[in-house]
Amino acid sequence: MAEKIQCLIIGSGPAGYTAAIYAARADLKPVVYEGLQPGGQLTITTEIDNFPGYPEGINGTEMMEDLKKQAQRFGTDVRMGMITTVDFSQRPFKIIADGKHEILADAVIIATGASARWLGIESEAKFNGAGVSACATCDGFFYRGKEVAIVGGGDTAAEEATYLSKLCSKVTMIIRRDELRASKAMQQKVFDTPNIEVLWNHVTKEIVGDQTVNGVIVENVKTGETKRVNISGFFVAIGHKPNTDLFKGQLDMDENNYLITAPNSTKTNIEGVFAAGDVQDHIFRQAITAAGSGCMAAIETERFLSNVSQTH
Ligand SMILES: Cc1cc2nc3c(=O)[nH]c(=O)nc-3n(C[C@H](O)[C@H](O)[C@H](O)COP(=O)(O)OP(=O)(O)OC[C@H]3O[C@@H](n4cnc5c(N)ncnc54)[C@H](O)[C@@H]3O)c2cc1C
Fold first, then answer.
1. Could you tell me if the CB of 33 is within 6 A of ligand 1?
2. Can the peptide bond before residue 92 be classed as cis, meaning omega within 30 degrees of 0?
3. Which of the listed CATH numbers 3.40.190.10, 3.30.360.10, 3.40.1190.10, 3.50.50.60 matches domain 118-236?
C-alpha cells in the first residue's frame, strides 16, 4: 500500500538537509531520501573553510553529519535509497523509491544537486581532493602563491581562471582547440591577465605527484609532443550535469537541464514542487547558497501546504 506523507525531500546535501530542518520544525514531518551520495558533494572534499560558523574550518563529511543530526533532532525521517520515478501529473504526487516503494506526497522539494563533469582519467580520480578540484571558488585559496592549471574553455573556466589568477602566481589554461568557447568579454579578461598562460591545442594526459599533485603532462594534439607543466593544483572546469533526468518532460529546465525556478523563489512550474540548491543554480553552486535556498523551499512548502489545507 502507498505511504502518504506531507513533504518529500529528494537529496541529502546542504539544500536537502536545510530544507529538512525548516520543514521538520514547521511540523511537516519531512521524509528525506539520501540518494547514492548521502551528504551530497561536500562528502568528497576534505576541508570546508567558507561555511559560516566553523572558524577553524570543518571536514565535509563531518559537516554533513552535523546537518543530518540537526534535521533528525526535529523528527526528519532520513532514509537510505533513491527516488526512481516521479509523477507530478496527479495529486498527491506519486513517487516511487528504489523501484518499489510507492509514496504519495502533498509537496516535494527537489535537492538533487549537480555533479561536476570530470575528464575521466585515472590520475584525476587518484588526486581528487589532493590537488585536483572542480571548484576554484571552493579550493583556490589553498593554492595562494602557487602555480595551477585549469582545463576548460567555456565561460565558467575563463571566470575561474581569472579568479585563480588573483590568488595564484601563475595559471595555465589547457585548451583542446585553438579558441575559447567563452564569451568575447570573458576571453578578453583572460588575454589581459598577465599571469594566465593559455596552452592552445593541448589535452591532459596525466596528473602527476606524490601525496599531492606536483605536475601535469600535456600533449599537443597537432604535433603529438608531450611536456610537463609544474603545478600544485589542477582545476577541472568542463561543466556540471544537474541531476534532473528523473524530471524530464515534467518540470521546466533550461538548455543545460537545470530546473527553472520562479525569480526569488524555489517554485517550479508545478505548484507544490520546489527546487533548491545546485539543481537549480548554475551560477553560485556553493554550500551556503544551497542551504539558503533549502530554507526558502521549506518556507514556501509550508505556505503551500497551509493554503491547500485551508481550501479543503
Ligand atoms: C570537490 C568539491 C569541493 C567543494 N567544496 C566546497 C566548499 O569548500 N565550499 C562550498 O561552499 N561549496 C563547495 N562545493 C560545492 C558544494 O558541494 C555544492 O554547492 C553543494 O553541495 C550543493 O548542495 P546541494 O544540496 O544542492 O546538492 P549536493 O550536495 O550535490 O547533494 C545532492 C544530493 O541529492 C542526492 N540525489 C541525487 N539524485 C537523487 C535521487 N534520485 N534520489 C535521492 N537522492 C538523490 C544525492 O545523493 C545527494 O545527497 C564543493 C564541491 C565539490 C565537488
1. yes
2. yes
3. 3.50.50.60
